[in-house]
Structure formats: structure tokens, C-alpha cells
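Mods, move this if it's the wrong board.
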Amino acid sequence: MKVTFDFESGSAAFPKCALARIKKASDTAVRLLIILAADDEARQDIDAAAPRIMKQLGCDRAELDRALAFWCGAGVTDTVEGD
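Not the wrong board. C-alpha cells:
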């Protein structure tokens, strides 16, 4: 059986190193990774996008921060201060 994707509305790229850490990621962290990979606006300003992301994930800010910290601690992503 072959799996295909619908790329009609675009695509997202994931860091390959995330695969090695996915087993230890919480559900929220996995869903956050998908959002961050697909949403450039969220990557550019996570603080401004936080209310929208929290609504999408059904979580509070503390859980969002823990999910982001997981990926940062795993070496998959990092945060830097905006311009």
C-alpha cells in the first residue's frame, strides 16, 4: 500500500532529527511541531501567535511553553529574540 499526500494547499517541512525524538514527545508537542512546520507566521513570532496556537491545541500557555521547551531541549528547534 502506498501513502500519498494532498499538497494542493501547500506543504510543510519537518527537521529529520524530530523523528528520533517523537516517541518521547507529548501529544501537544507533536501537534505543535506540525503547526510550527506549516505556519511561518507562528515561527516568526510565537508570542503573538500563542493565543491562536493555544486555541488550536486546546491548551494553556504553560502547556504550550512545555511543548516548545521539549523541542528546544531535544535540539530540534530553538528560539531567538525577534528583530
